[in-house]
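=== RUN LOG ===
request id: a7f3
mode: sequence -> structure
chains: 1
length: 195
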Amino acid sequence: MTNSNQVSSNDIETNFALEEYKTLREEISKKMDNQNKILGLGIGGITIIFGAIQKTGIDELFLAMPFLVIANAMLYRSECMAMINAGIYIRKIENRFYGDSTKAEIKQRMGWEHSLNREVYKPFNHVSDIIFLSLYFLSTIKVVHYIFTSEMLCNLTQKIIVLIIYLVFILFLFFRYLWSIFKFKIFLRHEKYYK
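=== RESULT ===
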């Protein structure tokens, strides 16, 4: 015999799912804010550093610029992935309540997270990739120029060796960033996430 004061397990599960839902929506909102901060402060800060290096003439600082650009780009990408993962989990919670129904009135009650493949977000991600990659290539060109015009390295052989070592690290980071973009796009296209 059940006690009337005892809450049913179905009610507990529903309350738990609703709390998860609210928490994840807040998390997604924070992730979106983080993305905007990373994009604004990262790109703004990098361009300010570029200008300061040009103005002060401390060209050695250009050696750190590609690393800063890629670090900001990867941080932006990780926030984007975290937001998408939270949205996928929200979709699972919504499917638990609404089922996999295709009825229009039920689909309208679901949050925006239920439809992750939204065209409105794609141009923003493309623009951020273009900005980060442009800054990356600009900083890499400045590094190559600095290495070949540096008076610290005496002969051409030393300059080429330093350049090869540096470019190996820089290209590794560059291809790692491209791989993260590729994985992100595959992740979004995978059919099980659009059901």
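=== NOTES ===
The chain is about 75% helix and 0% strand.
The CA atoms of residues 34 and 148 lie 38 Å apart.
=== END ===
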